[in-house]
Write a structure and sequence with these properties.
Oligomer: heterodimer
Radius of gyration of chain A: 22 Å
Distance between the termini of chain B: 67 Å
Number of strands of chain B: 0
Shape of chain A: globular
Number of helices of chain B: 4
CATH topology of one domain in chain A: Cytochrome C Oxidase, Chain A
Strand content of chain B: under 5%
Shape of chain B: elongated
Distance between the termini of chain A: 18 Å
Largest interface: A-B, 40 and 47 residues
Helix content of chain A: over 70%
Order of helices and strands of chain B: HHHH
CATH architecture of one domain in chain A: Up-down Bundle
Order of helices and strands of chain A: HHHHHHHHHHHHHHHH
Strand content of chain A: under 5%
CATH class of one domain in chain A: Mainly Alpha
Helix content of chain B: over 70%
């Protein structure tokens, strides 16, 4: 099974995967571009005023983030399905049709966000412009369309999984994607009570990113370890089940940390504190997993007298290792900073949240999905060993360095807000503005912008490498 | 409204000078925890020499100490203190349990 991913040529499922991954990469670029606009507006508030206001740029930034990751997740599933099940994906024609429907819908939504932006305060805005829910702001028609597309995707996954060889990885993905699709429904209706409304909205946001997405990443990491370093399937899959148990065990009720201050009952403080304290455990465990498998596999090879690396895709493996490390740092360290209610009282809604969001989304998800793009490049070009190039090294260094730089800058800005806006001025209206007018805050925003540019340049190099490295003669074929 | 809030959870307030040590110690909880499991695993798979193992436990002790500092400065209540204690025991046992299971599966498949 170790080298089955090299059979990308001729597989319709893998062809569809490359379509999804290509659109994902384009949307990733859009996410960074609109993020840059929003970052510039922190430094120069008049930039694109009444043309592309901060509210719109930020909306495009965070929605593009979610959508590119969903595209890349679908693409990754279509990529690994033939390898894992041993058969071509069932219903691939429907899958291709739904890909075009999904892509067209996203283009229309982005154009509406860009050029229409706001609508009247009635139902037409919710149906045709935006639902106004952070992260999932697509209008209702697109919401319904997304559900149809996802149901088609889940059907393909289940039909293929049930007919072909249902490996542990496929079984986990099947269960996970059903939860992933089902939870989205919790964000599709409104209630008159804002607390109740937010209560359900968090089911989508938290249970996606801290439960189903993390489990999905565990499954991808398992697939990557088997395909890239030839790790032992039974060991990897046994470990995957432990991760699933730990992630769901801590992640589901870890949602309590979002219920501290939205009007939900006080028992959520205790639940949130307990399970949030446990949430770093699976992240640490995932970190061990990669280290263990890498060490064991390389050690076994060296015991046979071979000094060569067991890694057959260096750029992808670099991104996968960054994922283990970035998940640990972004979700673990930066999450634990402010997950306890005692300190969250002060940090909630400051740039601390933004710092955590940037590093966690990047570390936990962007890294591994970019790694999957490199696996697709290797497979579609029939490359036996894909080596790192100068461009790939610069890309990964600039993107990782840029995101880390943004995170540090946002953390400093958040720290100023905690001290000034919250601790000293008691979360008052005046405190809110005073916290943002000081030198430390404004300099942090300058550094965030600079690091945002570094990240974007890194993305351009990444795009160049993904488009050209397949033809580079440096690789072993 | 103030009377309705369970003050044992969110009070007393955090002193201004305590925020930095809280953030640093909470970050170090995870960082030292990472060193603990990282060194433990590296020794077990033969990437590090065996003499490095005590160093792993030193890092676990540092993790526990940082968590104690963090909890004290935050003035956590009894329940949260117990929750944090459980988390520390989890950190201590986790690499042992995981390595044991991984090793057993490897042994079953290699022999």
């Amino acid at each position: 099974m170790a080298n089955n991913h090299l059979t990308g040529i001729g597989s319709e499922s893998k062809q569809l995967a490359t379509w999804y991954l290509t659109v994902a990469a384009i949307l990733f670029g859009a996410q960074l571009l609109f993020g840059l606009v929003a970052a510039i507006q922190y430094v120069m508030p008049g930039f694109l005023f009444e043309i592309l206001d901060f509210s719109i740029a930020r909306m495009l930034h965070i929605n593009a983030l979610v959508v590119w990751m969903v595209f890349a997740m679908f693409g990754s599933v279509y990529w690994l399905l033939p390898d894992e099940t041993g058969i071509e994906t069932i219903g691939i024609k429907v899958g291709k049709l739904l890909f075009w429907v999904f892509t067209a819908a996203i283009v229309v939504v982005v154009l509406v966000f860009l050029f229409v932006q706001v609508g009247p305060a009635d139902e037409t805005t919710i149906w045709f412009i935006t639902e106004g829910r952070e992260y999932i702001e697509a209008p209702r028609w697109a919401d319904i369309g997304i559900v149809v597309v996802v149901l088609g995707f889940v059907f393909n996954l289940y039909a293929t999984g049930m007919k072909g060889n249902r490996s542990g990885i496929v079984t986990v993905i099947m269960a996970d994607m059903l939860a992933f699709a089902g939870i989205y429904l919790a964000g599709m209706f409104f209630t008159d009570n804002i607390t109740v409304d937010q209560y359900w909205w968090w089911w989508v946001i938290h249970l996606w990113v801290e439960a189903t997405w993390e489990v999905y990443v565990g499954a991808l990491a398992a697939y990557g370890l088997i395909t890239m370093i030839g790790a032992h399937r039974k060991v990897v899959e046994m470990w995957l089940w432990i991760e699933v148990a730990m992630l769901f065990g801590s992640g589901i009720l870890g949602m309590g940390h979002h219920y501290f201050w939205i009007g939900t009952p006080e028992y959520w403080w205790e639940i949130g504190a307990l399970f949030s304290a446990l949430e770093p455990l699976p992240l640490v465990a995932m970190f061990i997993h990669v280290l263990y498998d890498w060490g064991k596999t390389q050690g076994a090879q060296e015991a046979l007298g071979k000094k060569t690396s067991v890694i057959n895709n260096k750029p992808a493996f670099t991104w996968f290792v960054l994922n283990a490390f970035g998940n640990f740092l972004g979700a673990g360290v930066w999450g634990f900073f402010h997950t306890m209610p005692q300190v969250n009282l002060y940090t909630h809604g400051t740039q601390f949240t933004s710092a955590h969001g940037h590093l966690a989304f990047f570390g936990a998800y962007a890294t591994i999905l970019i790694g999957m793009m490199y696996l697709a490049v290797q497979g579609t070009n029939g490359i036996k060993v894909l080596r790192s190039t100068k461009t790939s090294i610069w890309a990964v260094s600039m993107i990782a360095g840029g995101v880390l730089g943004m995170t540090v800058a946002l953390t400093l800005a958040g720290y100023v807000q905690v001290l000034v806006s919250r601790a000293q001025m008691g979360a008052t209206w005046a405190g809110y503005f005073d916290g943002q007018s000081g030198m430390w805050f404004s300099q942090a925003m300058d550094w965030r912008l600079l690091m945002g540019f570094v990240t974007f340049l890194g993305f351009l190099l990444l795009a160049k490498d993904l488009l050209t490295t397949g033809k580079n003669p440096v690789h072993e074929r | 409204m103030v009377e309705m809030v369970d003050m044992s959870v969110i009070s007393p307030g955090i002193a201004l000078n305590d925020f930095l040590p809280i953030f640093v110690s909470s970050a170090l909880v995870i960082v030292f925890g990472g060193f603990y499991v990282g060194i433990y695993t590296a020794v077990k798979v033969g990437m590090f020499k065996k003499w490095a193992m005590p160093l792993a436990y030193v890092f676990w002790l540092l993790t526990a100490y940082c968590l104690y500092i963090m909890g004290s400065l935050m003035h956590v209540g009894d329940f949260t203190a117990k929750a944090l204690g459980m988390a520390m025991i989890g950190y201590l046992l986790l690499p042992h349990a995981v390595y044991y299971m991984q090793h057993q599966v490897h042994e079953e498949n290699d022999h």
